[in-house]
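Question:
Now give any protein.
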Amino acid sequence: MLNILVTGVGGQGTVLFARLIGSAAISSGYAVKGTETIGMAQRGGSVVSHLRIGELINSPLIPLEKADLIIAFEPAEAVRSLPYLSKEGKLLTLDAPIQPVTASLTGKGYEAAEMLGFLKANVSNLSVLSSAELARGSGSAKVINVAMLGFVLAKGWLPFEEEALLAVLNERIPKRFLELNIKALNTGKEYAQWN
């Protein structure tokens, strides 16, 4: 069984990211259960998707300390999700902070460096990706989620082949955006070779 927790802030494409993985896993013959907590996502709130791939899955929710992989689109959300990470688990996060709604209301923000420092001190298997580099290589910040998908795929952290994911992208992504998304996927794969 593979337990993947995907977390970020509303508008970053975390839900699509999780659904693409789930669809590719199903088309590859795996049983999949998942659930999403969206909350105030449209206002910059936290978004969390639980994705469980394998046999004998009783619940779509990942128990604490059982996530094999946490994919965070935002450093503070990565820190917030740490109780779910297993001792051998991997954590992948982007480096750019997105200030939560509460910070904008109070005028108090946070520095990404603080969160990343905490993660580096507490996660043995951590990968931090540059949002700016992924956006530049992909041609748009709007497809960073697919670039991250390419990174995870190239690292071998998903149980299916690239062909299954490409088929899902062809099915799910509107034709006018498909070329951009394929470019993002390839950017993530390239990035994985030297990170």
